[in-house]
Fold this sequence. Notes:
Immunoglobulin-like; starch binding; 36% strand
Amino acid sequence: MTPSQVTFEIRGTLLPGEVFAICGSCDALGNWSPQNAVALLPENETGGESMLWKATIVLTRGVSVQYRYFKGCFLEPKTIGGPCQVIVHKWETHLQPRSITPLESEIIIDDGQFGIHNGVETLDSGWLTCQTEIRLRLHYSEKPPVSITKKNLKKSRFRVKLTLEGLEEDDDDRVSPTVLHKMSNSLEISLISDNEFKCRHSQPECGYGLQPDRWTEYSIQTMEPDNLELIFDFFEEDLSEHVVQGDALPGHVGTACLLSSTIAESGKSAGILTLPIMSRNSRKTIGKVRVDYIIIKPLPGYSCDMKSSFSKYWKPRTPLDVGHRGAGNSTTTAQLAKVQENTIASLRNAASHTILCVLCLFHHRIYDWMPEQPNIFQVEQLERLKQELPELKSCLCPTVSRFVPSSLCGEPGIHVDANGIDNVESA
């Protein structure tokens, strides 16, 4: 096999401790495994906002290779000579990965900006490999997350800032040879509302404001989930001028502290915590904050790769409005549904949008696994549907397993039966 030296180039920005890496479909590129990927090196230290990164890899000439770039952290292996532990922060998730067929002894591939392939930017977050993710959420779904007992603050609006601190370790623990090189703790703040989503890796000096129509979510990734001190600082939203001028920390009301070991000792992976808010001066309790939490860990014995990204892929097209037969329990719940028997209503609603309607109807109930003895009650229901929905009159007799496309579907090339759609390519 004739070798070919291929130099891959990519441009992009990184956070401290991150590197770019390339992963692909051959042994030299790790066979899609991030643990065996090749890290790129920076071309220069003063590359501006978008630095150039390079890696030269020997590939087989004339053999097509597919590959993707990602950025993350490479940690020390658990064992001598073992594979590195890799934290994937962002990776390219284009449906078709980048590809190359080297035909010369030396070749340089300039892939432009990280995440952009064929003019389309497609990036997604990585998955958990050896780290743990802690998510904390403040929201108004049931009641305000912050409750203050002081009279002068009861009607105030608040801003919240979260700070991560690692608990101190003994000297013996720090020099122990069994302690691996750990990743630095990362914090990501998400602001989620009905019509907006913002994701940030940094916070203003006084944090973000709490709003009734918005969730504030903190995502923390760490190698030491039992060794974190999470500090919530609360600031008054509306400040008068004299308070701002005469205060080193304008509007700072108080602080709440959460030890991650508290969550671990509870034995639960999800729940709600109520933390006391201590006054900044007197250290007295002035209120409480309600925090939803969830602990996410990697699945043991399961490893992901970068070969395909179908689980993250959504075809850019208008979604289909599909009629359905039922909506679960609609008669015995505390809040009765407006349309308790909703077959006709849902089919009418879908038909009014002139969108594809899947007519799975009552086939499996009509037959009850005995085609020669259909359920008479269900047959009567189907006949009633045909009377109330003229669009269904083109359907065949219920003893036939396949229904012909009706005017309700509007797609003559699609055949609908009891199991769904036979031909979905034209949908």
